[in-house]
Amino acid sequence: MHASPHRRTGLGLALLSAVAFGGSGVAAKPLIEAGLDPLHVVWLRVTGAALVMLPLAWRHRGLLRREPGLLAGFGLLAVAGVQACYFASISRIPVGVALLLEYLAPVLVLGWVRFVQRRSVTRAAVLGAVLAVGGLACVVEVWSGLRFDPLGVALALGAACCQVGYFVLSGRGGDEDEPVDPLGVIAYGLLIGALVLTAVARPWEMDAGVLAGTADLGGTGVAAWLLVGWVVLVATVLAYVTGIVSVRRLSTQVAGVVACLEAVVATVLAWVLLREHLTAPQVAGGVVVLVGAFIAQTGTPAGPSAPVAGSGSAADAATATGTAVDAATATGASADAATAPGTVEERAPAGAVRGRPRAAAGEKAGASRPDAG
User: Fold this and answer.
1) For 184, what's the count of Cα atoms within 13 Å in the CB-facing half-sphere?
2) Which of 118, 121, 232, 336 could form a cystine bridge with 48, CB 3.0-4.6 A?
């Protein structure tokens, strides 16, 4: 049986979103190594994307009155928190490792559900959590006494924690009578994140001369403004929007599996463009982390879902298509969102996310579209 054009389009957009989110760290790291502070790179990314999304914020201005807590949570945690921690981490550890650490968000959500909310969890979710933790041990090579910079590892885990915080917060919000448009949530989240980061990063202290020069991308000089443009327009705006649209055409499970490709894309790009080579045990551990996240996610029981709103992986957002928050629903948590990437980058962020923090589609329970993704 052939997939419908609607579904094929959704799959293509989900792949595009994963690739876009996966490239954020690869484009940002040369800027950091050229002399920009990680917080200044985050500020450029978030503020630039907020300006591009400003028309959507105006269109959905009613959200400020309806969901102020949700917007604040997205801006502070899924945008500012996830991305600041992620970008700071990649200044100290490889991009692929940082993103894989973000993909521990599903495990952290499980811990919240089981030990804080004291709810039972499915066996699939527990198995996925065990696999993810075991894979993490291989990624950071614990037998070598934690091969990577401990602060860098802690910052990447901080990005995962920010994703979890947003998922928990979003599970308490929402209007049961009228679904929240995730594009509006993202637009205001970026604006709020930009305001917070302006106060924290103090962009007026940025070395603007770096932006007029070039940055080293694996031995090749690239104009810094081109890298900034990529991070803003491709790795943020395009990644979030395509992630949301794809989620509305695919099931949560399919979108979440595709989101796992963000970590693969980021690792491959970092390997090719930044010469960040990983050892065989680290690659194997990364695969186990992704498999664990997938198993936890596919343990989601059938049934109605609560109203949700969008987050990113990843991110980054990301967790832009659904990994971490699906782990929450797999265990009975009230949040049911699909993250874009992020972002645990960057999904909040897988985280992210993303990376990535990632973006989730806000829907009321029993809505007539395919699944929240």
Assistant:
1) 19
2) 232
99 with 345: CB under 8 angstroms?
yes
CB-based contact 308:361 (threshold 8 Å): yes
How many Å apart are CA 316 and CA 312, to the nearest integer? 6
The answer to whether 107 and 290 have CB atoms below 8 angstroms apart is: no
Per-residue pLDDT at 327: 33
Q: Which residue(s) pair with 313 in the sheet?
A: 357
Candidates 353, 371, 307; CA nearest to 164 is: 353
Q: Are 349 and 240 in contact (CB under 8 A)?
A: no
pLDDT tens digits for 232-284?
Answer: 999 999 988 887 777 777 765 566 566 667 777 887 888 888 888 778 888 88
CA distances from 75 to 46, 93, 149 (A): 10, 25, 28
**Residue in the structure block whose two tokens are 């490709």:** 261
What is the Cα–Cα distance from 364 to 12, expressed in whole angstroms?
26
Predicted TM-score of the model (pTM) = 0.71
For residues 295 and 21, give the distance between their C-alpha atoms in angstroms, rounded to a whole number. Answer: 22
